[in-house]
Structure formats: structure tokens, C-alpha cells
Amino acid sequence: MMADSGNAGGRAGTGRWSRFVTTTMRIRTRSRRGTAARLAVVSLASLAVLGLAACGDTTTVSTEDSASGDLPVDGAARELVLRVDISGGFVPVDSALRNLPPITIYSDGLVLQPAPTIMIYPGPALPVLNASQLTPAGLDALREAIASSGLAATPPDYGQPPVADVHTTTLTVVADGQRYVHAALGLSELGNDDVPGLTEEQRAARRQLAAFIDQVSDLGAIVGDDGISPVGPWHPARYRIWAQVAYDVAPGTPVLPAPQPTTTTVVPGGAGSSTSADPNGTVSSPVQPLPDPTATSTVPGEPQPTVWHWPIDAVDLAGAQECLAVEGADADAVGALVAQANQLTRFEQADVTYHVVVRPVLPDEPGCPVLGG
Question: What separation in angstroms does the CA of 155 have from each of 81, 104, 189, 205, 341?
Fold first, then answer.
């Protein structure tokens, strides 16, 4: 069977996805034993462009997610305590859809951070999250740091720098049942002292916000080495799926059977298998299919898309044009499949070839994002 990138009965998408420029940042955490900071390379992308892949009807889903090892069990009550998010800017749409917050912390002590990403192209198709667990004392120390920061209060005016195509850094904290959302444009790119078009009060507010975010990025320094568990893999119970008709597949590209799930890297000293943030461990990567000698390439040496058959009949890619949320056995199957793919893997279902983007759903998130939310 050959890949067909045409429209399936008019149900196919809205055209090509745009491609822009991506950026990275580093978030530091320390293990219970660790003395050196751990670095996690985090993809920065925008959810502000979700209007290009806006969500309509969503699947009703549970809010129970699991972690491994000594981490919280399924069903634990998880209310948001703190989140740092980075959005906006000029980024590829598929990167925007995969975007995950650099750090999220819940009321049961669960800490979620994107796992290190191998810096190759095409990279892994599925973003992976690592988890650690704050002790009760560690969670208390974090709450004290939030209170001392002065940011559990009505956000000040952070100004509007006269620049374009920069990210917005958003800090959300929840204290005494109240949610406070602080958003500053260009906080990570522009600095805070010599930004044009701002008052001194706005610069001071940006310095305060940046200082606390930098403090949170080294979580071990706040909670102490005994206040947080070592990093382990986090296993999502839900995924969001977006699918657009793929227009970048060369005519005649064969449709290959999807590989069977394979064993991933075992985290040294951990209870599960996943991408590891341990600098002494290895970082797992998806299966890289061999080049297809029959495929045509417009640029010599340039990687070309590979097409796999989509084997999960219960998940209809034609119904994921705007967004589709999956859970349970369907989520397990999607995660196992896409974990073996890379950014140039395309999927064929019902004689239509799709560019598929999959993102884990965090415990407090809806199955699909709310349009305009």
C-alpha cells in the first residue's frame, strides 16, 4: 500500500501546519542525594496558536493519573499549587501543541517536569514527563517560599515591552484557596533592567517575578535534599491527539506496519522505565526506522517522512482534526505506539496519511484545551 495524502471525503484538515523557530530553557532539580543540579532540556512552544488547532467536542475523561516507584498512587487528590508555563512567540504549530509546562506541583506533593530530550532531528514524537515527590515538610517549605515571595497576591503591572515574537512567562500559584496568575511578556528573553518602554515599578515587578521563578527552578534548594524524592518516570493516564492530513509525504512512499512496543531504558535505581533525568543514566530514544531506498528526496541527505499504518482502530484520526482526548486502554496503546515514532513519522488510516501530534494530559487539565482558555 502506498501513502495517500489526499482528503478523505472532505473530512481532512485545514491545510499545512506552519513551521517556525523553537527555543529551549533549562530547569534544575536536585535529587535527595544529589549535590549537582540536574538539567532538563524543555521545549518552549506556544499554546497561544491553538486557534489554528482549536478544540471543539472533547471526550469525558477521569482525572486519575499514575506515577511509578515511591510516587503517588492513582486517585490521589491533586490540586494545583504552582505552575510555571512559557507560551507565545514564533514557534511551529506542532511544537506548540506538544508544549508542556517546565514545572507543575500539586497539593499531594507530585512534581512534574519534562524529561530531557535528545537534541537530534527528527526527535522523539512523544513528549515525556518525569515525576518526583515532595515530602510533607518539603511541600510546607515550598508554600512558605510562595508566601515569602509576595506573589500570592493580586498581580502587579508587568508592562508591555515594545517587542514582537517573544514568549510570555506565566507563574500560577494557589494559596489559601486563591489562584494568582502572573504573566510577563519577554521575561526570559529581555532581562528586566534595561527593557525599553517600562516604568521603574514595572521593572521591579519583573525582577521579583524572575527571581522567584529562578528560585523554583532549583527546587532542591527550597525544600532540602530530604524534601524531594529522586526523579522517576510518570505514566500519563490520558493523551490529547491532533491529526492533520500530511502534505509532506513523497508520492509512492510505502506504508509500513507499525512496530511492536519495545522495552525502554531502565532508570538506574528507579522502579520503572522511561527517559531519565539522572546524568549518570541513559536517555531513551524512539526507534529510528531505516531509510527507505524507494523514497524520493527533494534535498540530498534531508530526512524524509516515514509512514506507518495506524493500528488503533478505536482511535479515529479523522475525528482528531481539532482535538481528541483518549484514556484507559486507548491511551496506553497510543502512548506505546507514538513513543516509538519520531517527528517525521506519519500515520495512515483509511487510506489517508496524517501528521499526528500527541501530548500527555496533566492531572488538573481538561481532556482537550478550552478554545480561548
Answer: 16, 19, 20, 9, 42
